[in-house]
Write a structure and sequence with these properties.
- By secondary structure, the protein is α+β, with helices and mostly antiparallel strands.
- The chain has a five-stranded mixed beta sheet.
- It contains four helices and five strands.
- The protein has one domain: Cytidine Deaminase, domain 2 (3-Layer(aba) Sandwich).
- The protein is globular, with a radius of gyration of 14 Å.
- The longest helix is centred in the first third of the chain and has 12 residues.
- The protein binds 2'-deoxyuridine (DUR) and zinc ion.
- The site of 2'-deoxyuridine has 15 residues, from α2.
- The site of zinc ion has 6 residues, from α3.
Length: 132
């Protein structure tokens, strides 16, 4: 349920490696089978290599063969529910269904419940590579 996924995202956030921004983000991704994958942001002295919490969670799940997801929660200590960056919106559009619920939240408990499709309408998708 959503409350539990929010708790898991907060736990994931504690693992963030953020010596440069000190802005910790956590994500919890639930599979259709009920498993939960944690993700946190992982920064790098070469700043452009920073990886966001959302992508960490998705890539962790993918790396062990999970492909079907129910929901994702993202949390940060942000003034508004943390909005995923463009790269994560694109990756979610590829790896999750368009109607998958995405819950964005912050440590104040503000919630923005949206979907993968609404976060990136008109995403570039696999079918766009075909010209038949
Ligand atoms: O939705 C978001 C937004 C930002 N970040 C990370 C990237 C970087 O480490 C730090 C500041 O942008 O926050 C995430 O992990 N997810
Ligand atoms: Zn991102």
């Amino acid at each position: 349920m959503l409350e539990q996924l929010i708790i898991e995202a907060k736990k994931a956030r504690e693992m963030a490696y953020t010596p440069y921004s000190n802005f910790k983000v956590g994500a919890a991704l639930q599979t259709k089978s009920g498993a939960i994958f944690h993700g946190c942001n992982i920064e790098n002295a070469a700043y452009s290599l920073c990886n966001c919490a959302e992508r960490t969670a998705l890539f962790s799940a993918y790396a062990v063969g999970e492909r079907d997801f129910n929901a994702i929660v993202v949390v940060a200590d942000s003034p508004r529910p943390v909005p995923p960056c463009g790269a994560c919106r694109q990756v979610m559009s590829e790896l999750c269904s368009g109607d998958m619920p995405v819950t964005l939240t912050n440590l104040n408990g503000d919630l923005n419940q949206t979907t993968v499709r609404d976060l990136l309408p008109g995403a570039f998708l696999a079918d766009d590579l075909k010209n038949e």
